[in-house]
Amino acid sequence: RTAPSPAVGADPEQITEANILLEAFGNAKTTRNDNSSRFGKYTRLTFDPDGNYSICGCHVDHYLLERSRVVHHMATERSYHVFYHLLESGAGRPFGLRGGIEDYRYTRNSAAISSLNDKEEFARLKDAMVKATFDEETSSNIFKGIAAVLHLGNVEFEGDADNSEVDSSTRASLEAACKLLGVNASAMASALTSNFMTPPGGQPIKLGVSVEAARGQQDTVAKTLYSRLFDYIVNFISYRLKRTGQGAASGPGEREAVIGLLDIFGFEDLAVNGFEQMFINLTNERIQHLFNSIMFERELEVYRKEGVSAMFDPCVQNLACVRLFTSPSNPPGIVKLLSESAYMKTGRDGAAFVQVLNSTFAAHENFRVCDPQQASRVSKAKGLSKFGMRGGLALDYRECFQVKHYAGTITYTVSGWTPKSIDALLPHLSEVLRSSSESYVRELFDQEEALSKSTVGEKFCAQLEALAGTLETGETLFVRCIKSNPQMVPGVVNRKEVLEQLVHGGVIAALEMRHKGLPDRMDYETFCFDYGMLEDPRFCKKDLRFRCERLLREVFGEAAERNKLYAFGRSKVFMKSQINAFLRAVIALRRRNVVKKVQRQWRIHTGTERIRKVEEAWEAFLDTERLAKTKAVDGFRTVAQALDTARRKIEPMKQLLEDMQRQFGTNVHKIAAASPADRITPLFGAVEEMRLAVERVVQRKAEAEQLLSQRLARAANASLKLSERVAEVFAECEELEEVVDKQELEACLAACAAARARLETLQNEELPELRRVGPVGVDLEAEGELCLSESEISPQAAEYLEAAAKLVTHAEELGHGVLRVRRAFQQAVQEVHGQQEDASRALEILHEPAKRCIAEGFSGIVEPVRLAWILQAEAQELLQAAKDADGYRAAVEAFVASVREAQATVERGRELLAKRDAEREARRELKKRLDALQKTLEDERASMHRAMEVQMGPTAEQGGTIRAAAAVEGLLEELAVLRGQSNDELDEWRAKVEDLARRTQSALATLHQRLSAATKERQEEFNRRMQLFNSTPDKKKGDDDILDPAAFVHQEGLGAHEDTFMEVCRLLETLKQVGVPRSGVQRCLNHFVKYSWGVAGAASLSSCSPAKTFSSPSKSNAPSVATTPAKPPLPSGSGLR
């Protein structure tokens, strides 16, 4: 603890008291911990670098308060501490709280905490609130809200499945709660017993709700009110403890020192794991990923950066498990799917939500589909079947899914997850609270509309990633809390459970990494600075790495380097821990020897050697005396004698030295000359004898205490085993209560109670007292090794155990008489037990196909399997009860018959699965066929477009080609629609696909025919027109017989292009006038035609022409569309467009 700086406003005591305050409102008793945190907390402590690093601020962020604990808890647990503090202390009377814990529904059936006094804790809570600067009004408002929650929990409802109203007998509780909240009781009663539905485009319609729904809304208001109060307390603390004053950082450039403390809930696997446990375990999974990243990935990065090969395997990564929950898409994770379900009008929950998870994540490496077998096993392992009907499974596989976490596979039960995902109250409920006359209530619920825009899961995942980002930016240290035993008994270690926690938490893997790797590393400069004293002075001026390599190889040899005891990186040396420890020990020894030599020579030089010897002897005496007193051995005879002897020798010389110092002052030479050397020399001998005597007794006492601790630990473990034996007898007697003699049963139960009481006294009082007293009756002053048996080190422990064991044995003997019915039962059922085992093995075989049926949604197939597991559980329960032989025979017979039915049903399921697989394969083939059709149509469409670009001008086939092209486009559109119908009946979809394929083939054939005809027509037309250029002029005809150009164009049906052709004619006339030969013009025109229509096209068109200029290639009949090259634009000055 440090004092607050005068420049800042944060008091460390306030921070401590604030933590106590948060524990009262956010902690509760669970089956594993009497003070378990039911929320996550990240405390950010700020220190002032300019104020001697004094605490100058504190900020608290909290995560996922367990709301459900407000309204429900198991009989072995409690709700939040503050409820019990308020009731047991009597401080709730001003708020209308009368009676005790059992008088309120939310605190009824709570377990007691023997080590906790609620009345005293409330006084401590009030003091903490004062020290945390909560004024009286604020504190009163908080307790008003807490009392209102308790009153609200006592409201009951009456009605039917459609309408409900507040029970008149509990109207007073409702009015008390509403008075504390400042709201109208009638308005609250109406809101709790109604809901609103808004039709599309209409006004909200008020609807009545069932009794169960009204109770659900009542619990929702209570949970939300408590959660808002807790949020207010955390925000108030952060505001009051924030960094203030001159030490506050005013901008990003200011210096600031921060320590963040994350206190997160531990990994949980409860009897029934619900909504809160999923997010708790997700948090631990994410923090474990951070631990792996820091401990392993960053370690590997150091090795890679330095060019040193790592000698350890990286830890198994769990990022896939984190993404299973948090992935936003492709596919969306569990949290995202849950948020989508919460936004649905019907609210997908329970089995419907689990079915979505099964179909989405069936193949995920961390997801497990929960089947009846798994549900049965989990129920049995957790003893859940005892809470339901006989033989019934407490877990319904249809509402369960399993996740393989880093700490093991956890079964989650989906029940009421959708309403829990909604962070805000329904509008009509929040409206009542926002209309409160109390300002603190209005303030608590003024953000309901904003809170309704995102779910609890979405907010939590965002908080979790922000927290992980914060932790990754700094230097992170991990503290693993290990639970030593599930019984919460002091001094007992359950080795199996402790080892499991160490393995699952990654601690063992981290230790293995250090053992296999080179955990100690230093840069070469630091190494040479620390260990330069050990090297040859001739090499002090050499390169740093050379000096490091030479020193290590000279001390440890090159064999150590080959054995990977050390390695040299680019800028650092890597070493095993023993290498670095040895070097440090050698350096320390050498420095100590050097220092002693220097000190001795200096004392001789200055004449203080004798003075210092006396002072050192006296200091050694005082140190040894303190050791004897600290270890409580100063009362032993040999120790007292040794101390007295040493004192009589050393104290006179110390007194003489002080007298001479008073006489001669600081003249050390006169003091040294007057000091008798013959009396100084024996001083260290006396000191050594005293030290040896004290250390011998201290060491023997430590050995005795260690033996005692081991003996008491074994005694504690033995007492736990005795407790288990008593519990087994007690449970068996209770199970046989209906079929055994009442007097014998009462005697047996009384004996069990006596044994239990004796064992509790042994565990909680006698063994701790023996530990406190320490070894008794042990000769700690004897010479030699301490050789003691268990009876010698603690005879009382053996006596206590023997007395408890006698009581346990007596209870077992009485139980043996009571269990005659069970022994008779065992003899009677031997004939059918083999049938049960055979049927169980047959049922085990159905596990995998049943799981596949669940994933495929064949719930009807799995139902007989589920019934078989229920009957198996019933038969097993009767077998364990061992008191109804006829009932057991009937149960086994029913079980065997159900297994036969399940086998037949699963066989049908296999056929359905095979059919489903075949159908899925057929759909895949049909999709491939559609893909092929689509590619063919798209290719033909591209070819068709190129061909139509070539075909300029009207032809007889032009209209047909366009219609064929339109048909191709229509087929592509029809194909897209057909893809969307892939979930239709297979036969119907196959017929549509085949019909489309036939019509596609027909359409393409028609298209090819049209294109071929159009191409042929173009070829003929082109050849005919080329005769105009290639034929010799008819000498017999005169020029007058030749049509003028415009008339010829119209004759050829090209009148629409008259202007273009007339421009060509004028250009030809110009060429003639300037003397260009006709043959040259003709060759150029031939080339232009080839250039525009393509070589192959032009050749094809001229294949019938006798002109030498247009000689046709061998493949003249190939469609021009397939060989048309891309054409660059014509020169801008050509005059052709």
Verbal overview:
This protein is mostly helical. It is built from 42 helices and 15 strands. The chain has a three-stranded antiparallel beta sheet with strand order 4-3-9. Strands 10-11-12 form a three-stranded antiparallel beta sheet. It has a three-stranded antiparallel beta sheet with strand order 13-15-14. β3 (about 40-50) and β4 form a beta hairpin. The chain is extended. The N and C termini lie far apart (about 95 Å). Mean pLDDT is about 80; it is low at about 1-10, about 385-390, about 950-955, about 1035-1040 and about 1100-1135.
Brief overview, please?
By secondary structure, the protein is mainly alpha-helical.
Q: What is the rounded Rg?
A: 47 Å
**Strand order in space, largest sheet:** 4-3-9
Secondary structure tally, helices: 42
Taking the alpha carbons of the first and last residues, their distance comes to: 93 Å
Number of strand elements: 15
Give the helix proportion (percent range): 55-70%
The largest pleated sheet is described as:
3 strands, antiparallel
Indicate the mean pLDDT.
81
How much of the sequence lies in strands comes to 5-15%
Classification by helices and strands:
mainly alpha
> Spans with pLDDT under 50 lasting ≥5 residues?
1-9, 386-392, 952-957, 1034-1038, 1098-1137
Name the shape in a single word. extended
